[in-house]
């Protein structure tokens, strides 16, 4: 199966401001009335406040529901297991466990698969794409939000090797997109309170705040949230936006803290800043000679992360090929949930590692073959929510762990995490990666203790578990700055920041050496999304605009016949059309045939502006024809009201009479009169920078006389990808498929 294509089904978002006549008119009116401008600024803060609060409340709902359900489940299973005859393998609890998990996962998977497929996975790849400028269908819809939030509760309680942190980031993004528009397409309600925010650009800024709030809610890491939005999304960034995003993250952390402190009966004691709680680490010290050890652990994490990503890529390709029916997706999820608990249950009974109960409460532990005063260490790892497992790995006494238990758990969990990510359920991979890494860190501690029994005072299981977790996560997701800050904020330990940073940097370098993509980038590539990475491909300076542009161009004249506009919209799928002067050039009048009436040089008239498909649709829908002279009827608001979904042209043509088809439309007041354009001699490198930095959707290519010679879109740029083969660098051009 080839991954060398981009899907045509993804449209682009338009982050370029269309400064047309109506927009400027509105701006001038606002200048005269300062209150409007002040109100807009004030509303922005209010919207941000609500995004922060609602994201926190969603996170609380998820954490409380998971907590309650998981606690019922585990107590029920523990009772059943502790009732078993201690001397033999007991099947009844296994069947209960399989039944409960399969039911929960089936519900979560059915929701996602049949109702909102875009809610599958962690959601971080699609949020990244949205911020990058790709319109992923239904990514910020209400049903996606419900499937994501409710689905993740079922996946986590259903015992899959997943976490709820990634989905939280997607939930924050959906909340932001919904709240900022003041309307709901699902409920067909528009409050018209926030009309000024109805465009891709404003919405994107709110979505980045929502994603940051999601990180803050997930990890109790408000600064990490801001940096996450910056690292993953931003081609756009300014001081005011940073400040608002930070405010949003802080509000989320604060609200979550208050609600969870009430839930945990410690009202006012604000020690629950996020969904995940790594527990108190206290003062972890390190000496300078330990730095190479952290770098070494980082390298191991990088290798394991690369292995994880590589296996997951292959599994995902198999999935795309063979598991593409809805029922089979649900069946796979249910199978994995049954498999996971069967493995866990078998290991609990087969592994004879027992530990004294001592400080642990009796109803938290399972004997499973151990003596009355002991509990099974394996059950301590498996029979808990993933968040509880990670906390146990970080904080339990060093003498609780034996290398055999840890090694078995490490191998099993690594493969389960690798297999589970990508199935059709709402699931995150931060926690599974942290669990695998922390187990690896504990193993490394045992190794150090074993090989250097007298000279290992500096070694500390908790410290190595933390570094191992960071290394593994870094190798899988390849984030550096935001992940470092998230880890520091989550552990509440600034002293240990440099070791975490070094570990993450090394794990990214080593991981990148083996395969250049994070797990999120892999899934973006699998979905064939036209994503623009940070840097242009290395060899792009050698490619010219004239080589990548599309020509012939479908262009429209400044004053165009209604009939031709309809034909162009019917026959072409493009979303943007250059507007050109008409005097010099005569387009073939029939249909949407676009050949210029002369042969050479191939240009399509002097460039005047750019008009988008939806703008033409609104003009036709409102019947703004020269002959009606009703241009005064429309305002900038007319275009915003229709945002973000416009009827297809097929629905509009029935409204237009034969006589009206002979009318004409003046496109000049509506088109963007100053869109970005580039000379045909510009390099792909320069064009890439322009698209990436400004979030462009279309770029018109002109010749030396400002005449249109071609057009380049995001997809044209995304098609160029750097490729390495036998030590040689290639610029690979991907196909665009339907
Ligand atoms: P998007 O789908 O990203 O919102 P779009 O539909 O306008 O934008 P693409 O789908 O990216 O454009 O375009 C597909 C191909 O058609 C690209 O190769 C692009 O260069 C070409 N193309 C786009 N607009 C025009 C046009 N007006 N005339 C001729 N070719 C075009």
From TrEMBL:
SUPFAM superfamilies: CBS-domain pair, Clc chloride channel. It holds the Pfam family Voltage_CLC. Residues 671-729 form the CBS domain. One of its GO terms (molecular function) is chloride channel activity. The chain crosses the membrane at residues 45-65, 95-116, 206-229, 241-263, 284-307, 327-350, 401-423, 429-448, 464-488. It is a multi-pass membrane protein. PROSITE patterns: CBS (PS51371). Keywords: CBS domain, Chloride, Ion transport, Membrane, Repeat, Transmembrane, Transmembrane helix, Transport. PANTHER family: CHLORIDE CHANNEL PROTEIN CLC FAMILY MEMBER (PTHR11689), H(+)_CL(-) EXCHANGE TRANSPORTER 7 (PTHR11689:SF136). This is Chloride channel protein. The lineage of its organism: Eukaryota, Metazoa, Ecdysozoa, Arthropoda, Chelicerata.
């Amino acid at each position: 199966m080839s991954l060398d294509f981009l899907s045509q089904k993804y449209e682009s978002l338009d982050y370029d401001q269309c400064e047309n006549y109506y927009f400027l008119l509105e701006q001038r009116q606002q200048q005269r009335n300062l209150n409007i401008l002040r109100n807009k600024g004030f509303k922005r803060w209010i919207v941000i406040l609500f995004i922060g609060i609602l994201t926190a409340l969603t996170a609380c709902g998820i954490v409380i529901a998971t907590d309650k359900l998981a606690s019922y489940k585990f107590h029920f299973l523990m009772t059943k297991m502790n009732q078993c005859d201690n001397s033999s393998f007991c099947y009844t609890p296994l069947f209960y466990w399989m039944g409960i998990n399969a039911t929960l996962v089936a519900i979560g998977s059915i929701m996602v698969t049949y109702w909102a497929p875009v809610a599958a996975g962690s959601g971080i790849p699609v949020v990244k794409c949205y911020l990058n400028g790709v319109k992923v269908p239904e990514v910020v819809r209400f049903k996606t939000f419900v499937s994501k939030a409710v689905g993740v509760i079922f996946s986590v309680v259903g015992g899959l090797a997943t976490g709820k942190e990634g989905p939280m980031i997607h939930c924050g993004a959906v909340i932001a997109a919904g709240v900022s528009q003041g309307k709901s397409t699902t409920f067909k309600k528009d409050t018209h309170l926030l009309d000024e925010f109805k465009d891709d650009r404003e919405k994107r800024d709110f979505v980045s705040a929502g994603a940051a709030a999601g990180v803050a809610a997930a990890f109790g890491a408000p600064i990490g949230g801001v940096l996450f939005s910056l690292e993953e999304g931003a081609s756009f960034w300014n001081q005011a936006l940073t400040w608002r995003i930070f405010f949003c993250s802080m509000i989320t952390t604060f609200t979550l803290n208050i609600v969870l402190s009430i839930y945990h009966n410690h009202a006012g004691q604000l020690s629950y800043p996020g969904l995940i709680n790594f527990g108190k680490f206290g003062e972890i010290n390190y000496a300078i000679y330990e730095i190479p050890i952290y770098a070494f652990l980082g390298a191991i994490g990088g290798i394991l992360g690369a292995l994880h990503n590589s296996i997951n890529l292959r599994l995902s390709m198999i999935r795309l090929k063979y598991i593409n029916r809805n029922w089979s997706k649900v069946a796979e999820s249910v199978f994995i949930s049954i498999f996971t608990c069967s493995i866990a249950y078998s290991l609990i009974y087969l592994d004879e590692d027992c530990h004294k109960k001592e400080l642990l409460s009796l109803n938290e532990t399972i004997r499973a073959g151990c003596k009355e005063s002991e509990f099974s260490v394996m059950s301590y790892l498996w029979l808990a929510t993933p968040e509880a497992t990670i906390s146990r790995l970080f904080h339990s006494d060093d003498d609780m762990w034996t290398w055999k238990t840890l090694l078995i758990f490490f191998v099993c969990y690594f493969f389960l995490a690798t297999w589970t990510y990508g199935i059709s359920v709402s699931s995150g991979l931060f926690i599974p990666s942290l669990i695998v890494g922390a187990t690896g860190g504990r193993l490394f501690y045992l190794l150090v203790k074993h090989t250097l029994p007298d000279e290992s005072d500096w070694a500390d299981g908790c410290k190595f578990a933390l570094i191992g977790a960071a290394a593994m996560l870094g190798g899988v997701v390849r984030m550096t700055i935001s992940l470092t800050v998230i880890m520091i904020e989550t552990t509440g330990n600034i002293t240990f920041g440099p070791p975490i940073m070094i570990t993450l940097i090394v794990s990214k370098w080593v991981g990148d050496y083996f395969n250049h993509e994070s797990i999120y980038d892999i899934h973006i590539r699998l979905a064939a999304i036209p994503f623009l990475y940070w840097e242009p491909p290395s060899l792009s300076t050698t490619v010219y605009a004239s080589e990548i542009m599309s020509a012939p161009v479908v262009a429209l004249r400044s004053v165009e016949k209604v009939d031709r506009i309809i034909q162009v919209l019917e026959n072409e799928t493009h979303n943007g059309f250059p507007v050109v002067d008409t005097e010099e050039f005569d387009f073939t009048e029939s249909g949407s045939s676009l050949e210029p009436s002369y042969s050479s040089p191939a240009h399509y008239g002097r460039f005047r502006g750019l008009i988008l498909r939806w703008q033409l649709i609104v003009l036709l829908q409102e019947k703004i024809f020269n002959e009606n002279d009703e241009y005064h009827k429309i305002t900038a608001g007319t275009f915003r009201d229709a945002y973000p979904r416009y009827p297809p042209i097929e629905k509009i043509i029935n409204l237009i009479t034969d006589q009206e088809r002979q009318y004409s439309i003046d496109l000049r007041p509506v088109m963007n009169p100053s869109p970005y354009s580039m000379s045909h001699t510009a390099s792909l490198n320069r064009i890439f920078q322009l698209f990436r930095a400004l979030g462009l959707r279309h770029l018109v290519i002109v010749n030396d006389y400002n005449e249109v010679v071609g057009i380049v879109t995001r997809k044209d740029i995304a098609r160029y990808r750097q490729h390495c083969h036998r030590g040689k660098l290639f610029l690979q051009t991907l196909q665009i498929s339907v």
